[in-house]
Design a protein that fits this description.
about 525 residues; Growth Hormone, Chain: A; 20 helices; MFS_trans_sf; transmembrane helix; MFS; transport
Length: about 525
């Protein structure tokens, strides 16, 4: 059996390169479609399944924790079963998870399906990037990087649009049907082009169950504490703080163990990859980007729907349309970067885009036009990620790409950071939205009093309109309910303005830090 497997080559021949590129594209497309659709469709999914926000936060934390552990084991598994078997196994597990979610009717079945998807699909992104290195160095590999980037951007742009259309025009189950179909296509492409040679025994990295248990426990406890903290922090402050402390301690133990056991071919060569200053700086940029992406994916739909009153389908259409700017950003970055590889200018453009996006969104009002104002702002947001992450990716791994093991470990750790960063972003955004909405609602509600002339005037005017269709008592009640709903809407909008103002200052700080760098590679 091993002899037969060993007949396959480590790299595909020229006739199979297009299949490798197709596999890379499909893996990235599946990954970002499922992340984007499930994140954007969180509210209607909870309604369809009868899931509370607290329960949904549990599924999010469990998915991210499983994803982190799965990514950490990627190289270990590939060394033992080969790329083709690894990708096929991942796609099969992900397919089964989608099938469970497709047939789920309650929270328990959805949770099992979602976690199963995490086991299979979490390493798609890291795996796709490492598959690029199977292509011959030169133009073919550069094309592989471009296809990798286009799979990411197309998946992100399509996800809100598809989610909105499926929920409105078809059924929410359609989300998972699309993912299952793409899994089958990816598996067919992978079968004909990926190598199946396991690495030699002496170069295999080693794993330890205690270290993995520490990573799994730490990831879950940390993310669960952050996710559930938005609902239980004030009522169970001590409990949430203890869970968070235990989680962070477990993650610290895992990282410390990986560094101390670097001479034993560890699961992740943390000491060696962090010896690269470029990599350390790049990881910080990636973490900031994923934190912003996670928080924005939660805030923006909430503000557009609940704060500005746009329909959920309309939000999905324009959100997806705005994110198409990422594809233009990839094209522009790929065109300019080989000719002008100095990274400073690209970082400046990225931070300028996110600060401009924050400034524009911080000035929205109930009369803001979606097409002429918010759509251009979303386009700026799409460009921010390309110029920051694309540049960081090109620079961070330059010192590690000649060692396949170190490159793989570096990609794995970066994607573990992405899972944690995005989940933390969603959790912090949830806490922030709840906190700032409550603060603004209390301030606005103080004006709903009998001695406030503006409130009395508004109540009388609205009641007069309702009185045309109902009796006086009912008209007064309906007018009061209308004012209460308006207060809730305005509180959400003001909370969003607070967030986008913070985003503006983050962009300004990043821009200034990059501007004063005398030498930035």
């Amino acid at each position: 059996m091993i002899k037969r497997i060993a007949q396959h080559r480590y790299v595909p021949d020229l006739s199979h390169e297009w299949l490798v590129k197709a596999t890379i594209f499909l893996l990235m497309l599946v990954n970002f479609l499922q992340v984007g659709m499930i994140a954007f469709a969180a509210s209607p999914l909870m309604g369809e399944l009868g899931v509370s926000p607290q329960e949904y936060s549990l599924s999010t934390a469990a998915y991210a924790a499983v994803a982190v552990v799965t990514i950490s084991k990627q190289r270990w598994l590939v060394e033992r079963i080969g790329w083709r078997n690894y990708i096929h196994a991942s796609l099969l597990i992900f397919f089964l998870g989608c099938l469970l979610c497709y047939n789920s009717t309650d929270f328990t079945s959805f949770l099992i399906g979602h976690v199963t998807m995490g086991f299979g699909g979490a390493a798609f992104m890291a795996g796709a990037r490492i598959l690029v290195t199977l292509l011959p160095a030169g133009m073919s590999r550069f094309q592989g990087v471009k296809i990798y980037a286009y799979g990411l951007t197309i998946g992100m742009a399509l996800s809100p649009f598809l989610a909105a259309r499926l929920f409105i025009d078809a059924s929410w189950n359609g989300l998972f049907l699309i993912l299952m179909g793409l899994c089958v296509l990816a598996a067919i492409c992978a079968y004909f082009c990926l190598p199946g040679i396991p690495s030699k025994e002496e170069v295999r990295s080693q794993s330890h169950p205690y270290f993995l248990m520490a990573l799994a426990t730490g990831s879950f406890l940390t993310l669960y504490a952050l996710d559930s903290g938005s609902y239980e922090f004030y009522s169970n402050t001590v409990l949430v703080s203890v869970i968070l402390l235990l989680g962070l301690t477990s993650i610290y133990y895992f990282i410390r163990s990986m560094i101390r056991h670097h001479h034993r071919s560890p699961l992740l060569s943390m000491k060696r990859i962090f010896n690269s200053k470029k990599y350390r700086s790049g990881i910080l940029v990636f973490f900031i980007c994923y934190l912003i992406m996670g928080s924005n994916s939660y805030f923006l739909p909430q503000i557009l729907e609940k704060g500005l009153g746009f329909g959920w389908g309309t939000v999905g259409n324009y959100y997806g349309l705005g994110l198409t700017s990422m594809m233009f950003g990839v094209w522009l970055h790929m065109k300019l970067f080989p000719k002008m590889p100095n990274g400073k200018k690209y970082f400046l453009v990225g931070f300028f885009c996110i600060s401009s996006y924050g400034l524009m969104m911080a000035n929205v009002s109930s009369s803001t036009d979606l097409q002429t104002y918010i759509l251009p702002a979303i386009m700026l947001y799409g460009l921010f990620g390309i110029f920051l992450q694309g540049t960081a990716a090109a620079k961070s791994f330059s010192e590690l790409e000649h060692d396949s093991t170190m490159f793989s470990h570096a990609q794995q750790f970066k994607n573990m950071v992405s899972q944690i960063g995005q989940s933390m972003g969603v959790a912090l955004a949830s806490i922030g939205l709840q906190w700032r909405t409550t603060v603004h609602y209390d301030v606005l509600n103080n004006h709903v009093a009998s001695n406030d002339p503006i409130y009395q005037k508004t109540l009388a005017q609205v009641a007069a309109q309702y009185a045309k269709h109902a009796d006086t008592v009912s008209a007064q009640k309906m007018a009061f309910s209308w004012i209460q709903s308006l207060l809730s809407q305005q509180s959400t909008l003001l909370a969003g303005i607070d967030y986008f103002t913070l985003l503006f200052f983050v962009g300004i700080i990043g821009f200034v830090v990059m501007l004063i760098q005398k030498r930035l590679n």
